Amino acid sequence: MIRVSRVYHDYSGKGQYAVADISFTVEPGKIFGFLGPSGAGKSTVQNLMTGLLPLQQGEIYYEDTPVQALPSQFFNQVGVSFEQPNVFPTLTGYENLRYYAALFALPTIEPMRLLERVGLRDAAHKKAAEYSKGMRQRLTLARALINRPRYLFLDEPTSGLDPATAAEIRELIREQAQNGAAIFLTTHHMELADSLCDTVAFLFEGRIAAMDTPENLKRLYGKRQVHVVYAEQGEERTRTFALEERHALAAFLEQVEPIKIHSQEASLEAIFLRVTGKGLTL
Amino acid sequence: MKALLVSMQREFTLLLRNGISVYMLLAPAILALIFMAVFGTLQNVALPLVVDHSVPAELVGQLSSVAQLEQVADLASLQRRVAAPDAVAGLSFSDQQLLLIVEGNEPADFIDEMQAFVRAAAAAEDTIPTYSSERISARPPLVYELSLVCIFLLALFIGGACLGLNGVNEREHGLLLAFAVSPMKLATYVVAKLIAAVLLGALSSAVCALIIGRAEQALLFAVVAACSIFVTGMIVFLLMGFANNDVAAIGVLKIIMPLFSVVGLSAAFVPEAWHRLYYVLPLYWQYRAIAALINSSPVGFFLTMLFLTSLPWFLLVVWRFIKQTEFRRRLTNSI
What we know:
heterodimer, A: about 280 residues, alpha/beta, Rossmann fold, 6-stranded mixed β-sheet, 4-stranded antiparallel β-sheet, about 30% helix, about 30% strand, B: about 325 residues, 4 strands, about 5% strand, disordered C terminus
């Protein structure tokens, strides 16, 4: 378990906090989604959690060990995938993984098996410089998984991927959680968070604006709606009702010839907009 | 240990796949070849003399043992050759007499000395008398010594520069972050770079020693490279600390390369009494060690001083590198 408690970070040293009062817990076998627009402070929190930034204020614990006291051997259990794919461009995909695997003291996954899982088997012996951005992203993810991490940090893991590959990667991430990894996922893709995360936190201007399971957030902040598509004067029209307006909906259905009726849950993106007053593409 | 070995292997793989590094590695050897082409000729000492076909074969044989002989067909050709711009005397034989032909602008005693030389050669019967020699100068000429020192300094520098370029590449592609969240310690990362750089420097120095005809000293030059480990490390981490891409790295190289060459060498032009000012500089001891090797003098003291004085400078540079790059708190804690 990773426990983050009342964490603040100030790059400038002048009291201008990049992140403030951040508290949450990442449980083993669960995926914690950290959502927010670019510049909200997601990477700052990840860097504080992985020890890349010094902790100025607050507490971060891995089980009973504070992040400041983690020995280097602890990182045998950690996997990190960065938003910018950082791989050796002049090494092949296979060489990149083989080198990284050799840094770990624990048994690792065979690089070729992992490359196959992320769809890079055919490009295994090509230099990473020849990979597309999506391929490098997958290689970075494979590198993060090579040591079967107990603590997995993923920064925009499906960024730049085609829908089919993104689905494959989502499945791979879900598997890691099923195997007991505590996963911290930062993204601004609400669909990814919605489909993967057990808990999500909305980060806005350095603070957590809301945090709960996606279902609870939708229940708390979302408006569930019903769309009725009907024909009028030879044209297809749509009318939307809030789920609470059930009498009005029933009356309307008696007046028109409905073509189709479907319900719609509020999306996380709409909820984020409602909670923060601003969208995700800032 | 495994992390150290694979890191060193990675360094060599990256190096061989980087065109700039490969060309840089060849530079000291090419310079050594040029050195041999220039100084190899200058170091040869021989008396030039032109003879025509009238000179008896026996005398030609005797003269060729002690002079660099050139033969022409007849007297006219001989006279034309003597008149050519280079200083060469001619020898012909007519009416049972040797005729020494000179251009006329030689020093006054040149003709006498040349006559005595030819007479001595002609008087020798079967063999030229044995003779002993004496070096009139204890050391080779300064230009020779400094040129050689430069070649070896370059060989040592290139080892560090190549590994520094690898590091700049790692920095440019954000790989330091990946290392920082791996179990690899900062010490492992630094030592892998140092050993790889020293091996390159040692290999490069040994190759240069072989090219310049000092094969017996190749191992000693490798020892100088080993004792220069922290100087080489300074080059690696100065490059990595100040450059975050290849273009910036070339700029930094343009500054530190002359610096690392000139600082030590400048002592050659400074009075001995002022050398105390250099004692804290490892580059001075590196120069002294290489110069001592070239002159076949003892190097132990210079190597010890090189090792000792370079350590604090190296630690300063690494500290600066850690501050400058993403190698933050965790790795410095786990040294």
